[in-house]
């Protein structure tokens, strides 16, 4: 009987996630294929599927199946234990939020997105302030209902980074800040300056697409279990290890957008394709958190893709593919793609200053959640933060506090996962290097299988077996810290810019 | 209260069809985008959505909502009356089929499809016979459960052509046969022979795609509310008037495949895009039947697209687009695309002989349903029929009774709708011509709006208001007959081939 109780729970879990996979496909199609006028029907389709999924997760039937499986399940196996633990967490979380609050949040968010789009276009924060105010109220209410030990922000952060605590994240970020600010300043004063103009040379879209597909395949992206398309905002949509879809965008006057964008999404995709298909549709076959996901994308994009060894292999193919780059020197190329400069826009930020953008948002979000910061004071707080962290002042709210879509979607607590991704990536990469001291030689030969296999064995295959913090401890033997990332940045950027920060 | 009862029923109806629209997208994606290895998850997604839809349609909640709306609905409006009538019909039909029978049919069909694919590949009917036998048993049981007045086949035909009766269809087909056989024979003996070799001239895929898109747009296909892709088997997938997707396939050595395939699918798509969006997701905003749908595709593909007036406009653009056709003469082109010749394969058949292929299948299906024909005797019956109707004998079962996928999918009763489509098309087209005697002049100028507007006003806008037979009567003032189609064929092919059949 115990097996059948667990089997019943697992079946219900898979059905629930199958609805989620359909939602993902509807989203993917909307961004890549859907005719413009299909948008209204799509909203209805998405609402229907999301509603069905929510009903299943919060319904008595699921609770009963989960309860029986918990009492009689095969909790000796790691996968069963993972699935019971995680589905309990998700169900509790979902059941604490009344349908009316979920619906209201979706409605306000829909209005907020429109308001935000207009506010950004016209650079008028006051247009966005009222719906944001309302949305934050709903988020505060949600945090109270979900519950938290430390501060309200924890309840939101937990959605994206299960188990993470704001105070701990803040401590790591503080440690990181102490290193990033002087490093960025030292690079700014370095005599060596990248010739970034060469990144703007003309590269035809078709050639970019061809080159990006070659790189993606070389890194290990399986086109039999995935595809690559074009969308306004690049993303990776994985519904099972055998159907993982990435998108990119092409700017004929800025090759890095597609090139590093593709490697970033491939990093996400390799994680999704590396999950255990036998556990597909259950937490044992799902990614740990957004932060761990981001660690994979950042690793392939930056730690691998912006490294000199990587280009020692690919620079030949690159200059053959793009005639406009034929005369460029490898050193100049590597320096240009590693240009470090304080800038206004997060998504365009380099490896060194990126984290500072996140710290600003993390700080504002926490203060907004406790009410210490009022919505109307966001623009001022933003600009003060930019000055203090990056030494520059936004020329407008559009290029300042209105630049990101996240708040308008109600995604508060999401930003920290981007910076955590960098930290996880560095700590994992350091461990991988320790295990495989010849990693750079592999990259010089265009060989990525050793790194990928290591990631699969140590991270991908385990699904949600460990929380992020436990995974870091298990894989690297230490708790999360900013040190490996700081070491990585120093080891890379000091020789590159000829400095000693 | 009456309004709210109807509103509740309508809401449930829309939700049910919304699930259907999601199923359509999953199907479309599978044929056009899905990575090969995604197939297993897709089967699960499709089964889940189909199951949810079936549950909704047959559940007590829907029956209650429908019952209340029937007693208190606004049946004075045509749309409400249509929706109540049609949903009652669909619900009754679905409720008569036990879930176990539906599931068993899906399972056997899945096996039958695999068996059919192999049987066709190896041209061994005996591999397909056992699952077909089982499938036909299930179909006979379904027919008994659904019920019928005339013969069991009526119950199956009714799924695709609501309200049609086998005996009536047979009578019209007999009338048609009397004209087709001598006309085909006369053309075969005509001294004028098309130079079909010119259809095999090289036309690059990209140029074909560009030309097909131009033609599609000119006919009225709205790319803001639709898109065009490539798939193995061309189809049209319409989930609402604002999201209608067609596919085609390119053969660089046979332009007509993409060219007329596109016009065919555009015909389907114009119907879908012409349905009333205000009634989307309810029968008042849906197509009448497969036969009426096919009348639209055949009309645009053949009645318009293979006509001389059409090419008087498009022949210039065609010869400019494809250098291999630069020296061809308009008359030779028009004759070549209207090549008539008895052939083995239905989907490659011309306008004159196409109906004979259908009559063969219709006759076999009826006899299989009553048990007068045994499965093991299908090959012999097929070959006999081909000889008697078309004067040729298949060289193999692969090119004979194994050529079509329909039976392996359990789609018995589907074939007649193809031939009915031709008959409806001719009768509608004759009425359109009577209303607009200058239609050919419009075509000569590349103007299709008059015909499209006429179709929208007389057919598309009415959704399922009328059954097919009623619609024909309403639009043309007469019941369905083979005469208009025969008149159309004679008027077109006799002068083309210089004969008097």
Give an overview of the whole structure.
- The structure is a homodimer of 501-residue chains.
- With 501 residues, chain A is mainly α.
- Among the domains of chain A are: 1-96; 196-339 and 442-469, no CATH class.
- Helices cover 64% and strands 3% of the residues of chain A.
- Chain A has 20 helices and three strands.
- The first copy, chain A, has a three-stranded mixed sheet, with helices on both faces.
- In chain A, a hairpin with a 2-residue loop joins β2 and β3 (243-248).
- In chain A, α9 packs parallel to α10.
- The model of chain A has no long low-confidence stretch (mean pLDDT 96).
- At the A-B interface, α1, α2 and β3 of A face α1, α2 and β3 of B.
Radius of gyration of chain A, Cα only, in angstroms?
23 Å
Largest interface: A-B, 35 and 35 residues
Largest sheet of chain A: 3 strands, mixed
User: In percent terms, what proportion of residues of chain A is strand?
Assistant: under 5%
Helix content of chain A: 55-70%
Q: How many helices of chain A does DSSP assign?
A: 20
Give descriptors for this structure:
3% strand; mainly alpha; 501 residues; homodimer; 20 helices; globular
């Amino acid at each position: 009987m115990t097996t059948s109780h667990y089997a019943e729970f697992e079946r219900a879990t898979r059905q629930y996630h199958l609805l989620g996979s359909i939602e993902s496909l509807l989203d993917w199609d909307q961004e890549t294929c859907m005719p413009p006028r299909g948008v209204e029907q799509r909203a209805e389709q998405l609402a229907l599927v999301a509603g069905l999924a929510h009903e299943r997760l919060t319904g008595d039937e699921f609770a009963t199946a989960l309860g029986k499986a918990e009492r009689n399940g095969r909790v000796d196996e790691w996968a069963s234990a993972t699935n019971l633990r995680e589905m309990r967490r998700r169900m509790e979380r979902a059941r604490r939020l009344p349908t009316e609050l979920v619906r209201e949040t979706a409605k306000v968010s829909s209005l907020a997105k429109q308001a935000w789009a207009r506010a950004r276009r016209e650079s008028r924060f006051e247009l966005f302030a009222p719906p944001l105010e309302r949305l934050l109220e709903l988020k505060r209410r949600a945090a109270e209902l979900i519950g938290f030990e430390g501060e309200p922000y924890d309840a939101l952060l937990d959605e994206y980074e299960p188990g993470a605590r704001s105070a701990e994240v803040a401590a790591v970020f503080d440690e990181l800040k102490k290193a990033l600010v002087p490093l960025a300043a030292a690079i700014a004063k370095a005599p060596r300056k990248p010739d970034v103009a060469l990144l703007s040379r003309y590269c035809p879209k078709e050639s970019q697409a061809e080159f990006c597909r070659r790189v993606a395949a070389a890194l290990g992206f399986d086109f039999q279990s995935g595809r690559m398309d074009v969308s306004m905002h690049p993303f990776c949509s994985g519904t099972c290890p055998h159907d993982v879809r990435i998108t990119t965008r092409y700017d004929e006057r800025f090759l890095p957008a597609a090139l590093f964008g593709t490697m970033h999404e491939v990093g996400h995709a390799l994680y999704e394709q590396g999950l255990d298909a036998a556990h597909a549709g259950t937490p044992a076959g799902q990614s740990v958190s957004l932060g761990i996901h981001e660690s994979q994308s950042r690793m392939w994009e930056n730690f691998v893709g912006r490294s000199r060894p990587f280009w020692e292999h690919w620079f030949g193919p690159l200059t053959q593919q793009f005639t406009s780059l034929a005369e460029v020197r490898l050193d100049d190329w590597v320096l240009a793609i590693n240009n470090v400069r304080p800038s206004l826009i997060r998504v365009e930020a380099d490896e060194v200053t990126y984290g500072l953008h996140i710290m600003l948002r993390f700080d504002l979000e926490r203060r907004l959640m406790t009410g210490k910061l009022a919505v109307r004071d966001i623009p001022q707080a933003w600009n003060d933060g930019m000055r203090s962290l990056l030494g520059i002042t936004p020329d407008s709210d559009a290029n300042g506090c209105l630049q990101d879509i996240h708040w308008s979607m109600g995604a508060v607590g999401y930003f920290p996962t981007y910076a955590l991704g960098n930290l996880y990536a560095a700590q994992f990469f350091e461990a991988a290097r320790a295990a495989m001291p010849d990693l750079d030689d592999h990259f010089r030969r265009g060989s990525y299988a050793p790194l990928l296999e290591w990631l699969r064995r140590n991270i991908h295959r385990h699904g949600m077996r460990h929380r992020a913090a436990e995974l870091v401890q298990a894989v690297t033997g230490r708790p999360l810290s900013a040190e490996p990332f700081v070491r990585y940045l120093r080891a890379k950027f000091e020789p590159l810019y000829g400095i000693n920060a």
